[in-house]
Design brief:
heterodimer; A: 257 residues; mainly alpha; 10 helices; 62% helix; 3% strand; B: 430 residues; Rossmann fold
Chain lengths: 257, 430
């Protein structure tokens, strides 16, 4: 896992370095007919504005993600979708949804959202037993109990922590400092739980590692497969700005609910 | 007696319009609502395959054109192809202003035509970013004659790219909104060039005059506030996008194209609230503004014109564009026409007057052709928002029996309605 991560980061930095060359200017600039200086007031906060002090780096990572998506992630996802029947894919999605309920459960409790916590606990019980280890989402059937959507980023927001600077994570995409912290915490809790579960299978160390890696890989592919977002598909020249804004709005809404 | 006659006349009129209404089940009688909400799911054309086999195709239209760093992701012109195994007619579909083949209307038409047994090639609008950067000869869209030449070039190259793989019996053409107007010009061009020899052309909700329609859409923003300042617009825009959090929760896959603003309305309707009329006009105007601001920015960068971005500034792939977004949102299509398209066209064609350019981008400039060709039909709505009464009269007069005018639907609101789709498919199949 660590090695793979290092490799990815290395590739990312090589790419980012390559992108960093400054463009050559040939002729002197002539002010625009509708100049920014006239139409944008520096002391006004506009609807599209966001706290993004690391914007150049974020934009590079955004671009890197688009390329990674195009040449690595999406081809793998396509192959996965081509090979596996839809009901198997659905089963895998349900399986991971059930495992990651632990995130919903812990964070509902941390925010004293007891109804959500009870719902989530109920879902885990039903889906793990009747739903055959989580492969079938029995709980949602017939207008049953729908899945909650809580994470540690929201918990931090619930306790009044602001989003901090906007941050585009390699491969994972839009985030901010608060949500990235949350993501790390949630991942640690999740990994600990997975480690415990795998530990009960009675495998040797190598087998455990292989299983752990495979689970992570399938989880990533499954998650991408269920995410309809495609880079540069909005058709807007200002996609980075719009996505940034919509991400922050979405997160604020999730925190408030 | 007089009163009796009057009552009788009224009864006849009411009765008549009553039967007319019953004949057409699309019930949304407010053109603003129709334009935003479209067709309720249950009334949509049902013979649409859920999944569609399509290929994303790439073309190098101008192999020597360098891609500016800021548009590094626009390396080639993209279009989609869906084909049948057996021989069938090929339909080219042209998207509306600012839209790509990814837009929901385009995907719907692609599925409907493919499901009905046609090969389908979906093309983004010449006003869309990918088209401007990779396939527009001037990179400054809005002159329909030139845009249609660009379309024709792209269609020719796309056909060359796929012709060994699909068996095509005949070529058809369709488009909606601005794409419909362009289809008319493309059809006329085809009469000279004869690459396709189009047998059938269907225009759906065209603009008669691009300038007039764009001005109508520009002016819808004034219904937010007659003295619309940048600050008021920004506050309004903020209110609209703040709804996104809720939209995101309600809809698993929110549309992320410009139409996402419409989702807020659909959401309110679901909750049983009705937004005010001026908000609806403002929303349509805002969606148009978002599409046109990308168009203007893209054209500005590609042509190095110096409208928003200082002339000769080279933008890199990681440069912030946020301030340009703010400026572009203040520029109306009419501003673009007056301060960019017209002077730019004039610099290449010194005698050109503004009136001549406006006239040249209107269907009126090809009236004799439209009047006399039998291959083109028109599908439109009595209450289409982008037409003036004179425009509607012009269309009815020119197309005569080749015009199918529905009583309701606003601008494109009923395009996916079952009767409308059946009408298009019947036309192409007959």
């Amino acid at each position: 896992m660590k090695r793979a991560l290092c490799l990815m980061l290395l590739t990312a930095f090589i790419f980012l370095a390559g992108c960093g060359t400054a463009p050559v200017r040939k002729e002197p600039e002539i002010p625009a007919k509708y100049p920014v200086s006239k139409y944008v007031k520096p002391d006004v906060t506009y609807a599209i504005d966001a706290y993004d002090p690391w914007e150049p780096m974020n934009r590079r990572i955004y671009n890197f993600n688009a390329i990674f998506d195009n040449y690595v992630f999406l081809p793998v996802v396509s192959a996965y979708e081509f090979v596996l029947p839809v009901f198997v894919q659905k089963g895998i999605t349900n399986f991971f949804n059930n495992l990651t309920e632990v995130t919903n459960l812990t964070n509902s409790l941390l925010q004293f959202k007891f109804v959500k916590a009870v719902n989530t606990f109920g879902r885990i019980c039903i889906n793990t037993t009747v739903g055959l280890g989580g492969l079938i989402d029995v709980a949602t059937l017939n207008d049953g109990i729908t899945r909650e959507d809580e994470d540690f980023g929201q918990t931090l927001g619930f306790y009044g922590l602001g989003p901090g600077p906007y941050l585009v994570l390699p491969i994972l995409g839009p985030s901010n400092v608060r949500d990235t912290t949350g993501l790390v915490v949630d991942s640690v809790v999740y990994s600990m739980m997975i480690g415990q579960l795998i530990g009960h299978l009675g495998l040797d160390n190598t087998q455990e590692d292989v299983l752990n890696y495979s689970l992570t890989a399938v989880y990533a592919i499954d998650k991408r497969s269920n995410e309809p977002f495609r880079y540069f598909k909005t058709g807007s020249a200002f996609e980075y700005d719009l996505i940034r804004k919509l991400y922050l709005i979405k997160r604020q809404f999730q925190i408030n609910n | 007696m007089k009163r009796l006659v009057l009552v009788f006349i009224c009864a006849v009129i009411v009765g008549f319009s009553g039967t007319q209404a019953a004949a057409y089940d699309y019930k949304v009688d407010d053109p603003y609502v129709a334009t935003i909400v479209g067709t309720p799911d249950v009334l949509e054309w049902k013979e649409v395959p859920e999944e569609i086999d399509y290929e994303l195709m790439g073309l190098k239209v101008f192999p020597d054109r360098p891609t500016p760093d800021v548009f590094w992701y626009q390396r080639e012109f993209l279009y989609t192809l869906s084909y049948q195994k057996q021989a069938a007619p090929l339909i080219f579909v042209i998207a509306g202003t600012g839209s790509s083949f990814y837009s929901s209307s385009m995907i719907f038409l692609q599925k409907a035509f493919w499901g009905a047994g046609f090969h389908v090639i979906c093309l983004s609008s010449p006003t869309q970013m990918n088209f401007i950067t990779t396939a527009s000869a001037t990179c400054v869209p809005g002159n329909i004659v030139e845009d249609s030449q660009d379309l024709y070039r792209v269609m020719t190259k796309a056909w060359e790219q796929v012709k060994d793989r699909i068996k095509v019996s005949e070529f058809y053409l369709t488009g909606y909104s601005l794409g419909a107007s362009q289809a008319a010009f493309v059809s006329k061009l085809d009469e000279e060039k004869r690459v396709f020899n189009f047998k059938k052309v269907c225009m759906v909700n065209p603009s008669v005059s691009l300038y007039t329609s764009a001005k109508i859409l520009d002016d819808m923003l004034l219904e937010i506030n007659p003295n619309l300042t940048p600050e008021i617009f920004d506050r309004w825009f903020n209110e609209r996008i703040t709804k996104f959090g809720e939209i995101y929760r309600m809809m698993k896959e929110p549309q992320l194209d410009h139409d996402f603003l419409y989702d807020a309305y659909r959401l309110l309707q679901k909750k049983g609230q009705t937004p005010r009329r001026e908000n609806m006009a403002g929303m349509i105007g805002t969606v148009f503004r978002l599409a046109s601001s990308t168009m203007i920015f893209t054209a500005d960068v590609m042509a190095n014109y110096g409208l928003i971005v200082p002339k000769n500034r080279v933008l890199g792939s990681a440069d912030s564009l946020t301030d340009y977004f703010k400026v572009a949102n203040h520029i109306s299509f009419v501003d673009y026409f007056n301060d960019f398209l017209y002077p730019y066209s004039q610099s290449r064609n010194p005698g050109l007057t503004k009136e001549a350019l406006i006239e040249g981008t209107s269907l009126r400039s090809i009236e004799p052709y439209l009047r006399n060709t039998s291959k083109i039909i028109l599908m439109d709505n009595e209450d289409d928002l982008i037409l003036t009464p004179q425009d509607m009269a012009f269309l009815k007069d020119v197309f005569g029996s080749r015009a199918k005018i529905y009583p309701r639907g606003g601008h494109l609101g009923n395009m996916t309605f079952k009767d409308n789709v059946a009408y298009m498919i019947d036309f192409f199949k007959s």
